[in-house]
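Lab manual, section 2.4: Encoding a predicted structure.

Procedure: take the sequence of the chain (255 residues), apply the prediction step described in section 2.3, and record the output as structure tokens. A sample record is shown.
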Amino acid sequence: MRSFRLKKVIASSLIAASVLALNPIGASAEWKQNPTGWWYKEGNSWATGWRLIDSKWYYFDSKGYMAKDTTIDGYYLNDSGARTELTTSGSFKFDKSTGTIVEYTGSDSSVVIPNKIDDTEIKRIRFTSASACKNLTSVTIPDSTTGIESIVFMNCSNLTSIVIPNSVKSIDPFAFDGCTNLKSIIIPGSITSINQFEFQGCINLTSVKIPNSVTSIGMDAFRFCDKAKFYVSSETTKQLLVDSGVSESQIIVSA
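Recorded output:
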């Protein structure tokens, strides 16, 4: 009897070992991250192309890094990298899972972004494209928005007016880079950080108001904004601007 049981145990172990040998990827697959981005380890290699992981589709480039915030093969990948079905409402394409405006397909010069689409609040904006930018002169951002993503208005050369509501807590680098006709900006009190290259190349910017809530300003955030006057209410904010590359002669400190 003992010999029979021992043989069963050995046989079961051999079967399990065989399964692992035949399927090393599934047995040792795991997410990894380095300074370049996320990748998915599969045994001694890594995933490339499309992969179904935990019931979600992801795409990995030829070097194995996960794609995100982009469209590949006609599918949108959100900021977590997962393939997401978009909702279309008028000229807006919208990711309901994150509350993000992904694309604007219209050609209006003045765009009003709604607070909600299909009863889902707009939280983030990353919608502009080259065709949308060409005609855009003014944008109204809803007060449900908490973030404006990188390069969203980059090179919108006809944009002259934008109001950033107090609900916005973050504006990513390059968000307004190259908006050559933008005249003025009021940074809301909800913002604590102005990122690197955020308003770079806004060569006709004449007025920038920065609140005391801002505690950091990235290098060259206002590069080439040589016509701008910066209105601040503390020496601390003035120093942040100087450290970022703004000339002292452009800064006006008022109580």
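Check your result against the sample. DSSP finds four helices and 25 strands in the chain.
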